[in-house]
UniProtKB/TrEMBL annotation, chain B:
The keyword Transmembrane helix applies. Its main location: membrane. The chain crosses the membrane at residues 29-50, 96-118, 130-155, 161-183, 204-227, 263-284. Residues 92-284 form the ABC transmembrane type-1 domain. Keywords: Cell membrane, Membrane, Transmembrane, Transmembrane helix, Transport. Belongs to the binding-protein-dependent transport system permease family. Pfam families: BPD_transp_1 (PF00528). It is a multi-pass membrane protein. This is Carbohydrate ABC transporter permease. It comes from Alsobacter ponti. The keyword Ubl conjugation does not apply.
């Protein structure tokens, strides 16, 4: 909103959608161009090449963008391209690869092929399961927690700070704590359940495939909930209480208040937050690597951990890159969802925004 | 609407919303109990980390004699061992200086980029803004393999400098996006005045914009620092020798042996690795929250 107001002001000084500066007077800044420039003319001050670099809008933009652009080109765009290229080669650690076409992908195969790479497809299954289950749980619990935090509470600021702690503690370090909590012999959960009389043996949390998956999902949800809760809380705080009062006067109950007032207003921010959450969960690496390293017997490998194992530990860079690149289609779907979520947001705010 | 018959002492106070409709017991069941339970679950692993770090070994593995939820005769043995008999201080130092350098580098680059996109409005600035948002969405998990070969080719393998150069690819998109939001809120008129008075763009940026955007800079800086500290996959891939590792990588790779007594020092390591961030966070909660929500809202 405020951005638009400034854009209005910006037009006055010749920014935004105005025609580009006249080429015959390249050195004039936008101030002189619109005020003094027209009066004094260009003959009084004809800037040299160096001045042009300093003052011309596009050159100036170029210099300002240079550091960020260099870093992003060298370490983001170039590796992304190289990742695609590597996935079509048989590169190994310490050896440049030769182009082998789609052979790496053929090795991965399709799930219904007899000679498909079962471990890879298991990792795809695990990744989807992990993403879907953890994202739904994170969303439900996160939204619930946000609604709770939006109530009038004593020590609200303190409670909010405490809620965020799981997000601040580095993931690997909290994963190590979970590793200990899920220890097969000394797990505090097993101990508590045994002493409550609910169980007569220790639970093998990380040694059994399904238990390990559930444990990882739990740890992921634990870490992801605060982020979702706090961002949704920020969205909730923008909802005017008078809307609820009006709805209540019209006879809406609590659920209807939530369903027809809170939720529609929150939808755009939910779309963005959940896209980020899905992206991060889908490409998760550190939690799994710290807790199970893909075990037991590959049953908790995600695509990211499998590609690390194949590319870095086993040295088959090409094969690992093919697995990593296989994540891209899924990510594109998530980004599309984000895009449409943002579109809707702009539409709700009543205009196009950049 | 039966609750409407409850006393309404705060009816005139608009900030109370409609809570006057609730009775105390209803609030206890619908708000306080669930909130308390969630908070306990969220805090427990951290409590467990602290508790394990100060527990003597025999209490750690003897759950029958001692109640595992508490500690008798706490000890600093694990922390001592970590600080004075291991490489832990080196790892902590590595983490810290990589994080600080990478954050500083990306803040400088992001300030310049965000200012150029929002206020210089060079040709195609909008598209660059969109491209930076897309860069935000490229996950490290698909970049670490090609980056490993590139880092090797640049001769930076097993050097913390590789991390200093690579981490900004995560931080710059985020910080630029956040700072763009802050810069947009600064009145354009201030810049006009400065331009009329003959200030250059660089002077405007350093003398007018930056002082006004300090909260944004702190938000971006704190959050970037946290992201660096937390980063794992690049550090795991690029660093191989013990003395170059960062805390998260070292904890996972150096401590993990079959020792049944390892838990005390593992948890002490996790605790010491988290504390700097938690302390920093406790001072800047508001900035932290605005960084988190700002990046989503803008």
């Amino acid at each position: 909103m405020r951005g638009r107001a400034f854009r209005g002001a910006a037009v006055f000084v010749g920014a935004g959608g105005e025609p580009r500066p006249d080429r015959r007077r390249p050195g004039t800044s936008e101030m002189t161009e619109n005020t003094a420039g027209r009066l004094a003319g260009a003959d009084l001050h004809r800037p040299g090449f160096y001045d042009r670099l300093k003052i011309n809008r596009n050159w100036l933009g170029f210099w300002f963008m240079l550091p960020a652009a260099l870093i992003l080109m060298l370490f983001l765009a170039y590796p992304l391209g190289k990742g695609f290229w590597l996935s079509f080669t048989d590169a190994k650690i310490g050896r440049e690869g030769a182009w082998i076409g789609i052979e790496n992908y053929e090795w991965l195969g399709l799930p219904w092929w007899d000679d498909a790479d079962n471990v890879f497809w298991l990792s795809v299954f695990n990744t989807l399961l992990y993403t879907v289950v953890a994202s739904i749980l994170k969303f439900v619990i996160g939204l619930y927690l946000a609604l709770l935090l939006n109530e009038n509470l004593p020590f609200k600021a303190l409670i909010r700070s405490i809620v965020l702690i799981p997000f601040v503690v580095p993931t690997v370090l909290s994963a190590i704590a979970f590793w200990w909590i899920f220890d097969s012999q000394f797990s505090i959960i097993s101990w508590s359940l045994r002493h409550l009389g609910l169980l007569d043996h220790n639970i093998n949390f990380l040694g059994d495939p399904n238990n390990a998956r559930m444990s990882l999902i739990f740890a992921n949800v634990w870490r992801g909930v605060p982020f979702i809760a706090i961002t949704l809380l920020a969205g909730l705080q923008t909802v005017s209480p008078s809307l609820y009062e009006a709805a209540t006067l019209d006879g809406a109950n609590r659920w209807q208040n939530f369903r027809y007032v809170t939720f529609p207003i929150l939808t755009p921010i939910i779309a963005v937050v959940m896209t980020f959450s899905v992206l991060l969960t889908f490409t998760d690496f550190q939690l799994v690597w710290a807790m199970t390293r893909g075990g037991p017997v590959n049953s908790t490998h995600l695509m990211a951990t499998l590609s690390y194992q194949r590319a870095i530990l086993a040295g088959n860079l090409g094969e690992g890159a093919a697995i990593a690149i296989s994540m891209v289609p899924f990510l594109l779907v998530a980004i599309m969802i984000s895009w449409f979520g943002l579109q809707r947001r702009k539409w709700q705010q009543g205009g196009q925004d950049d | 609407m039966t609750e409407a018959t409850a006393p309404r002492p705060h009816l005139t106070d608009a900030s109370e919303g409609m809570t006057y409709l609730d009775t105390a017991s209803r609030r206890a069941v619908t708000v306080y109990v669930p909130l308390f339970l969630i908070m306990v679950v969220l805090i427990f692993p951290f409590y467990w980390m602290v508790l394990t770090a100060i527990k003597p070994d025999e209490q750690l593995i003897d759950l029958d004699t001692y109640n595992p939820f508490f500690v008798v005769n706490p000890t600093l043995k694990h922390i001592n061992k970590l600080l004075f008999e291991s490489n832990y201080p080196v790892w902590l130092w590595n983490t810290m200086y990589v994080s600080v350098l990478a954050t500083a580098l990306s803040l400088v680059a992001s300030v310049l980029a965000a200012y150029a996109i929002v206020r210089i409005r060079y040709r195609g600035a909008q598209w660059v803004g969109a491209a930076i948002f897309l860069a935000y969405l490229v996950p490290p998990s698909i970049l670490f393999i090609p980056l490993a070969t590139i880092v090797q080719a640049y001769g930076l393998f097993d050097s913390p400098m590789a991390l200093v150069l690579v981490y900004p690819t995560i931080l710059i998109p985020f910080s630029t996006w956040l700072l763009m939001g802050y810069f947009k809120t600064i009145p354009y008129e201030l810049e006009e005045c400065a331009l009329i008075d003959g200030a250059s763009r660089m002077q405007i940026l350093t003398k007018i914009i930056l002082p006004l955007a300090v909260p944004g800079l702190i938000s971006a800086g704190i959050f970037s620092l946290t992201l660096c500290w937390n980063e794992f996959i690049y550090a795991l891939t690029f660093l191989s020798s013990t003395e170059n590792k960062t805390v998260p990588v070292a904890i996972v790779s150096e401590f993990v042996d079959g020792d049944i007594y390892r838990w005390g020092s593992l948890m002490a390591g996790a605790l010491l690795g988290s504390l700097p961030l938690v302390i920093l966070y406790s001072f800047f909660v508001e900035h932290y929250v605005s960084a988190m929500t700002g990046a989503v809202k803008e």
